[in-house]
Design brief:
Elements lengths: L39 E4 L2 E4 L1 H12 L1 H4 L4 H17 L1 H13 L7 H22 L12 H15 L8 H11 L2 H6 L6
Antiparallel strand pairs: 1-2
Helix pairs in contact: 3-6, 4-5, 5-7
């Protein structure tokens, strides 16, 4: 294992399982998490699952003050946005993204997609209003909350759907696109 001098520098330690890989490269993977789903993180002999928990663990364990502040107030701001994303973005995201990218046209439900798009837009109005006040969702600096929000923003911006004018999200998206990790791991073809 390479030294851990900065957070998330070792993409070679990550491997894809599930999805099109069907756990073929790790047949024991379904036994590592009670949900039998991805993602799961193995850090030596410690296993943790659920993406938000994984992000928080990595930030706390390896990120230092920048990623996991000692002061509970900025940490709470980050976590509240992570919780908000988890509560309000997945349902409309799934209704739109999964319908448009994973279902053949004849199986898509246009009413469900449109209802999801409207709900997604309503939630992104909240994000846009916050980003009118701060460069990143939880403050002036990129944080673990942006690690959670960023993939949703990418899919929102890349899908061929009607979107309200969100100039603050547009500027935020431009900032995210300058980050190498975002380019390498998020800015992928939609599928």
């Amino acid at each position: 294992r390479p030294p851990r001098s900065t957070l998330f520098p070792y993409t070679t330690l990550f491997r894809s399982v599930g999805g099109p890989f069907k756990f073929d490269n790790d047949p024991d993977y379904p036994n590592k998490t009670p949900t039998k789903l991805v993602p799961t993180l193995e850090d030596d002999d410690f296993i943790v699952w659920e993406s938000h928990t994984i992000v928080q663990y990595l930030c706390e364990q390896y990120g230092g003050e920048q990623w996991f502040p000692k002061d509970p107030k900025p940490r709470a701001i980050m976590r509240q946005w992570m919780d908000w994303v988890n509560c309000y973005l997945p349902q409309p995201h799934y209704a739109v993204f999964f319908s448009l990218t994973r279902l053949p046209p004849e199986e898509q439900n246009p009413e469900k997609i449109e209802a999801g798009r409207k709900q997604w837009a309503k939630q992104f109005n909240i994000v846009d209003a916050q980003l009118a006040k701060t460069d990143y969702i939880a403050g002036a600096e990129f944080s673990m909350a942006d690690m959670i929000l960023g993939p949703y923003v990418y899919r929102w911006k890349m899908l061929d759907i009607e979107r309200p004018d969100h100039k603050n999200i547009d500027a935020y998206f431009e900032r995210l696109k300058t980050r190498k990790v975002y380019q390498d791991h998020i800015m992928k073809p939609l599928s």
